[in-house]
Amino acid sequence: MKKRDMATTLGLTLGAACIIIGMLLDGSTIKPKQLILFWDLPSVFITLGGSFFTILICYPMKVIKKLPSILKNAFFDKEMSQADIIEKFVDLSKKARKEGLLSLEDEVETINDSFFKHGIQMVVDGMEPETIREVLEMEISSMERRHSSGINLLKSWAGYGPAYGMLGTLIGLTQMLASINDPSTLGPGMAKAIITSFYGSVLANFLFGPLADKLECKTDEESEIMEMMLEGIISIQAGVNPRVIEDKLKTYLPPEERLKLVSSESDRSAVLENE
Question: Which of 42, 130, 207, 213 lies at a 20 to 30 A Cα distance from 69?
Fold first, then answer.
């Protein structure tokens, strides 16, 4: 299950609003007709089209086809929080110690996360701890490789945007200088020379660069959560005390989140000292 990442949505919405307002303002006066000054179809072809087709050259089609899902990941977070995961592990460990590891088979279908579910299923199947750790670590590495391909694609696109903006500037200047004796051609040529750089800057600094950074941050968070799950799964198989599992997994939480889960005043003081 996933929930919407409002930070991405708000950032894009409010950022676009700031850019549009800046385009509309002439001093302190808003002039809606000024928007037409920032529209140039040839510049769109040069910057957006040219940079996209360069991406086709750089990356295999199987990665390009995943672009919609790559962009979608920037707008959604996983529903299950780290605190919920810790609570689930504590419940599972209590049941495993009381009724045995095979009793967890009934709980597998209640787990929404595929990585979590796979790990518990391997425990139920009686696989060796070393094998479980190796398989799950490979899954983490595979996830990081998949995400890095999408992140690198967006970073490349962000890099090629300004480059094609400069290319459009050179095209516009060439057209302008070639017809310098015809004043009617100076305006369109100058517009193309300037607007392409504007479009390239927007692609790099407002869209694809920030989206790549957001996905990189999400990948780091997901890796940490999966590592936390891995430790919990191995601990359950080893029959570790539920309280010990809880304390171990709490170390993955930031101090402010950990404070919400600790009960005694001494534990709260220890968390604050380590912050």
Answer: 42
